[in-house]
Amino acid sequence: MRKLSYLIILAGVLIMLYPKGSEWYNDRQQQKLLEEAEQAYSEIVPSASAPAGADLSKPYAEVTQLLAEESAAEEPEPSAAPEIEVGGKVMAIIQIDKIDLKLPVLEGATKANMKHAAAHMKETAPLGAVGNAAIAAHRSRTTGRLFNRLNEVGVGDTISVTTGKQDYNYVVYDVTIVEPTDVSVLKGNDDDKILTLITCDPLVNPTHRLIIHAKLS
């Protein structure tokens, strides 16, 4: 009887510790990628220009679907989760001081790349170039992880993007909540250098996408 009581107590303790363990694992992976990004600056290469007038409907639909799938998935157990393998190259580091965010940006918005990092949609404009450069990241339920606090960003805030050779400071001019199918958020023009950040909204059971638009200052 006493052994059963101990087992019940142990199970209760493990259940209470699980969220912290999962948070620790995810933070460790995110920090690992960030350190690798900073060390890889000398190897960063600019992304190729997106074709003018390219149809972004399909790649945008794939990105928003990945965002929805990750939001619905359960967090992996720290002991069972494999080491992350990313396929994209490090492009930059994105930083938003207002929400204490600093993330590596990988080239290609794939499932692997977006697991623990932000990802540049390679079909959109290069960072710092004329057009609309889009970066997507998951809205993790862990406070401060990935784009968890992106909803706190407002008009007038600064988003910094650092590559191996250049620092870009974008100023937010628009914050919107849109349908997952609204590809118009990726529209650009021949004059402005726009940065678009994409994530899910609301945080739990998301039905829409949170979009942050900023211009290079």
From TrEMBL:
SUPFAM superfamilies: Sortase. Keywords: Hydrolase. The active site is at residues 138, 200. InterPro entries: Sortase, Sortase_D_2, Sortase_dom-sf. GO terms for molecular function: hydrolase activity. Pfam families: Sortase. NCBIfam families: sortase_fam. This is Sortase. It comes from Paenibacillus borealis.
